Amino acid sequence: MNELKFETDGCKVTYGTESVTLLAKEFALLRFLYDHCNQIFTREQLLDHVWPMEYPVERTVDDHVYRLRKKLRRWSGLSIHTVRGLGYKLIRVPVGERLLPSLNDSRMQEAVHILLQRYHLLGQGTSLQTLAAQEEQLGFELTPLYRMYAHFVKADIGWFLEEKELPAGVLLYWCLILYWATGPVTPYTVQQCERALATGVLPSSHARELRHLNILEAYIENDEPGRAARLLPRTHEIVKRDRLDGFILPVAITEVYLHLSAGQLVKVHEQLGRIEAMLEEMPYLRERGRYTIFKGLWHLREGHAVEAEKLVDEGIRILDAAGQELMKIKAVCQIVRYLELHCPHERLENKYKRVYGGLDRDNKLSILRPQLASWLEHTLATV
């Protein structure tokens, strides 16, 4: 059994004849776990020992454990185990013990990622996160995309603020959407989207989604439905030209939002009927939740407040049950904004502001969103 050698200068760790250089906190975390081999530590305990006098979130530990596992993967004599419901422990594994064969089974890896892809499409955020959390036990490795997406659907801003391995343009896109989705849209938010597109650093697929889908809703929330309406025909062309089947329902729901904001209630009714038929063939939970919410807002605009409130609450419950935390936050922001701009209703407005307040506390939005805004401003100024 080989021993680890730690060199504080340079944060280098040597195992046998191989060495790896770690980031400072990765080095400190590994050294602590190694010095207390086979002992289980909660995330809170690890934060106290490795991040004293600092205030990171518990997910910081998960992020650093993930990176250590990735960097030390070829050292089969060491393993950082997740102890479900408790925390982590480092185990020194006898040399020669077999690894899980599924890790090197391409058909197994492909099958798992097809399952993750399907969960993503269906909007089953809870299912996706549950499978992702069992990565070690089930013997598969998440792709960077699905590892990132598992954090994205949870509105895990802290993870993205500490992420260092995603390409700059990819990270910029997802952080921009996180900021847009977790608070009220302002002219500054719209400006951020336009600046990001102007940088040219976004991958083509991300730039396409921002330009032809996300920014439409940003314009609507910024009380500029006319700008969104002028872009919508081009969006339909892109969806058809590039065969973006996964965009069909989201674009249709954005169109409902646009018609609602423009006061075109007959068009809203017609579009809701089309979406209802689509959902029979494409039972996607994200879209089902948003459709139900917008149907509720249409009822409110028609003067049916009781039915409206039931539908809006049902839509929020669908998103919650699906594990779509980020989409739920975005939906509540859109409900409040719609009430403020187009359909004043003091009781409902106060109710959904309280709902947002609960989501704010649960996800530390008041703490993390300003940090995210600073990161975005710095990044947009330097790319």
TrEMBL record:
Residues 1-92 form the OmpR/PhoB-type domain. Signal peptide: none annotated. The keyword Iron does not apply. Pfam families: Trans_reg_C. The keyword Phosphoprotein applies. SMART domains: Trans_reg_C. Residues 1-92 bind DNA. It comes from the Bacteria. Keywords: DNA-binding, Phosphoprotein, Transcription, Transcription regulation, Two-component regulatory system. This is Winged helix-turn-helix domain-containing protein.
